């Protein structure tokens, strides 16, 4: 069969560097375990290793380790935020007294809570509530105003005006105090304080995404570029932030912080210099804790993030597919969870609608791809996979259902640690719900979608194990046209087969593979000649490490997964697009800053960019060009040359300026780092000369 004609030549920007998807898998798995989005194992851990579940769920080296207590603390924060946003300050105070009494030692926070409680009591308007408001003034608000902070007593006298001005009077001097927005500001402030006090930081994935997306937005804005993922980032990362937690002591003395730390924090999370100083004060000088505090102030749409993570987990084989979804799966469009009380016809339709939305985003839709009409694919899709890496080892998605189980009890005896980790549904209810989903007419479609994923994941797993010959045979048997459209993938798979034979000492068989496959492929694609020569050189130096040094199997496996997915009408998950694009702009941003990111290791960004340097660079580049899954369309944010794979932004060799001189110019002239460096280079690195010239 003749290969199909190549597509017409188009002028496209080069593709983005690849991402270490295995590293992202680890971050995603940590996220779903930390927030309990997957069903926990049915059987408890063996007695010999009681802490094994905690150990596998998180990285012990991470400063934001997700433990059960951290999870409970995050639930406490979420609950306190919710009741405050609803205006129930009494419930918030009761929660704090029961579970975080030390937070109430912050007199500034306590004053704000009592002030809002007073306003809410007056807002209710009944005689009883008015009496309670006056009692709040006498017994709580006035005593707090005396020592909360210097301006507190003036604010106390001002808040008394709500007693005589109506809440609907927009021209009154206390219109802002009456505003509902005050509830949300206070809820955000309380969240910031509790998060730091309880060390209840979000999983690394959510902090990393906040950081990367914020840099991406700043980079595109300052470079005058349109973001190709703005439809996602604008919905996922909100513009407003929670108020910062202010240190209780306000010293007028100069802070004993290194200016390098101040500037690093200010530029990393877009703070003013004074904002960075205050943040470091609150964190008692701990730069990384201050960094985490500021990152967690950025608000994410958690329902959308859950949806993106779920989509990614199915694609990567971390959780079971749509037809195996746990009944607790969230309806992420509406932001609600289909819990026990929602098991009805409407709830089933909501879940089905969510599953269709997820597959629609992948261009797989709720209908099968045209390719599945081929007999070979249909037979393959109907085969039951027997591999141990199949559905039996994957997790079941549960969704963010814990809020439904969060006890509203606020008595002193309440214990957050006793909250159930998940609700278990009666088997009859599950069967009933499955029946309802079946009635929707989409069950068979979801099963077909799952089977397509099974084929893709099996090919990826076999490739990752180096079983290239079997992968080629399987794909050829089910789709003879696949490798005509993906010749570089075929070359690399045959390259793996060749190297395995060489490593095993069978050079004769290896040469047959080279002459039958590698040679013809290289003759039709000049870019493959160099990797072919490098591959043949291994004949004279056979050893066990030949395969690992020449080919990165994880990269090849992921590239094959992308190509087969496209063949089946399934696009890569949107989370992959976000990570690939934002990692690239992160690299470009720090090239502009002419420095290295001090926080990239803290957020595992360096591992997301990390690849085996011993793998063939030219082959990896060719594979990226061939199998970039349309990544060239997202290089519109590139400001120049695409960085090498796995490269880390380093200080330019042209920059010979002293760091203290750079910081001095930045501080005195309020300039961005690149501008300060350019000025210093004009005046031979002398900060005093630069400042003198500017002000002369």
Outline the secondary-structure elements.
Elements (H helix, E strand, L loop, with lengths): L20 H14 L17 H6 L10 H18 L3 H11 L7 H18 L2 H19 L6 H8 L15 H4 L2 H18 L5 H20 L6 H7 E5 L17 H10 L4 H10 L4 H11 E3 L1 H15 L13 E2 L4 E2 L7 H17 L13 H8 L19 H4 L21 H13 L3 H22 L3 H11 L3 H4 L1 H17 L3 H17 L5 H9 L8 H5 L2 H15 L6 H20 L11 H4 L8 H11 L31 H11 L3 H10 L4 H9 L1
Antiparallel strand pairs: 1-2, 3-4
Specify Rg, calculated over alpha carbons: 29 Å
> Helical stretch count?
33
Roughly what percent helix? 55-70%
- Report the principal-axis shape: globular
Sheet with the most strands? 2 strands, antiparallel
Strand order of the largest sheet: 1-2
pLDDT < 50 runs, ≥5 residues: 1-12, 44-66, 326-374, 384-391, 404-439, 613-620, 622-655
In whole angstroms, how far apart are the ends?
77 Å
Mean pLDDT: 75
Proportion in β-strands: under 5%
Number of strands: 4
Based on secondary structure, the structural category is mainly alpha
Region (Disordered): 1-20, 38-69
Biased composition (Low complexity): 50-69
Protein name: CTLH domain-containing protein
GO cellular component, one term: cytoplasm
């Amino acid at each position: 069969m003749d290969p199909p004609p190549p597509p017409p030549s188009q002028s496209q920007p080069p593709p983005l560097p690849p991402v270490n998807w295995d590293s992202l898998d680890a971050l995603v798995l940590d996220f779903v375990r930390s927030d309990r989005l997957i069903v926990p194992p049915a059987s408890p851990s063996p007695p010999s290793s009681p802490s094994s579940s905690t150990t596998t769920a998180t990285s012990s080296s991470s400063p934001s380790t997700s433990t059960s207590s951290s999870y409970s603390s995050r639930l406490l924060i979420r609950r306190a935020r919710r009741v405050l946003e609803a205006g129930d300050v009494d419930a918030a105070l009761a929660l704090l007294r029961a579970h975080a009494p030390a937070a109430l030692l912050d007199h500034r926070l306590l004053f704000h809570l009592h002030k809002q409680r007073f306003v809410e009591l007056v807002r209710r308007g009944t005689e009883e509530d008015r009496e309670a408001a006056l009692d709040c003034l006498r017994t709580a608000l006035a005593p707090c105003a005396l020592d909360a902070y210097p301006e507190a007593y003036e604010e106390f006298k001002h808040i008394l005006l709500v007693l005589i001005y109506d809440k609907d009077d927009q021209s009154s001097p206390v219109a802002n105090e009456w505003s509902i927005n005050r509830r949300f500001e206070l809820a955000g402030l309380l969240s910031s304080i509790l998060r730091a006090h309880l060390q209840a930081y979000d999983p690394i994935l959510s902090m990393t995404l906040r950081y990367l997306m914020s840099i991406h937005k700043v980079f595109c804005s300052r470079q005058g570029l349109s973001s190709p993922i703005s439809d996602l980032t604008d919905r996922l990362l909100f513009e407003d932030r929670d108020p910062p937690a202010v240190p209780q002591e306000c010293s007028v003395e100069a802070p004993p912080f290194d200016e390098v730390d101040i500037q690093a924090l200010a530029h990393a999370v877009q703070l003013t210099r004074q904002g960075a100083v205050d943040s470091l004060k609150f964190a008692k000088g701990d730069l990384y804790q201050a960094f985490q505090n500021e990152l967690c102030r950025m608000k994410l749409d958690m329902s959308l993030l859950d949806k993106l993570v779920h989509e990614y987990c199915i694609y990567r084989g971390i959780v079971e597919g749509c037809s195996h979804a746990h009944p607790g799966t969230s309806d992420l469009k509406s932001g609600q969870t289909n819990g026990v009380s929602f098991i009805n016809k409407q709830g089933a339709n909501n879940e089905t609608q969510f599953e269709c939305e997820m597959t629609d985003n992948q261009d797989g839709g709720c209908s099968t791809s045209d390719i599945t009409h081929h007999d070979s694919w249909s037979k393959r899709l109907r085969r039951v996979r027997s591999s141990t890496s199949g559905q039996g080892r994957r997790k079941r998605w549960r969704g963010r259902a814990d809020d439904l189980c969060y006890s509203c009890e606020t008595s002193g005896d309440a214990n957050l640690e006793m909250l159930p980790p998940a609700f278990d549904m009666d088997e009859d209810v599950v069967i009933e719900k499955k029946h309802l989903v079946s009635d929707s007419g989409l069950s068979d479609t979801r099963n077909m979608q799952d089977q397509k994923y099974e084929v893709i994941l099996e090919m990826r797993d076999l490739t990752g194990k180096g079983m290239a010959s079997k992968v080629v045979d399987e794909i050829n048997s089910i789709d003879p046209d696949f490798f005509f459209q993906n010749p570089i993938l075929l070359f690399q798979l045959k390259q793996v087969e060749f190297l395995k034979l060489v490593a095993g000492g069978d050079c004769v068989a290896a040469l047959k593979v080279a002459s039958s496959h590698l040679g013809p492929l290289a003759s039709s694609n000049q870019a493959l000649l160099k990797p072919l020569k490098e591959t043949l050189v291994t004949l004279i130096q056979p050893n066990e490490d030949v395969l690992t040094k020449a080919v990165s199997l994880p990269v090849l496996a992921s590239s094959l997964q992308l190509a087969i997915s496209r063949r089946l009408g399934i696009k890569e998950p949107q989370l992959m697009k976000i990570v690939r694009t934002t990692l690239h702009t992160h690299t470009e941003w720090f090239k502009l800053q002419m420095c290295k990111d001090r926080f990239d290791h803290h957020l595992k960004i360096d591992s997301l960019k990390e690849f085996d340097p011993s793998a063939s660079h030219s082959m990896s580049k060719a594979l990226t060009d061939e199998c970039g899954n349309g990544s060239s369309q997202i290089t519109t944010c590139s400001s120049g040359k695409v960085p090498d794979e796995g490269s880390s932004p380093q200080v330019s060799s042209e920059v010979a300026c002293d760091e203290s001189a750079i910081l001095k110019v930045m501080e005195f002239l309020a300039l961005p780092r690149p501008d300060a460096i350019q000025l210093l280079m004009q005046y031979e690195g002398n900060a005093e000369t630069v400042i003198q010239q500017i002000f002369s």
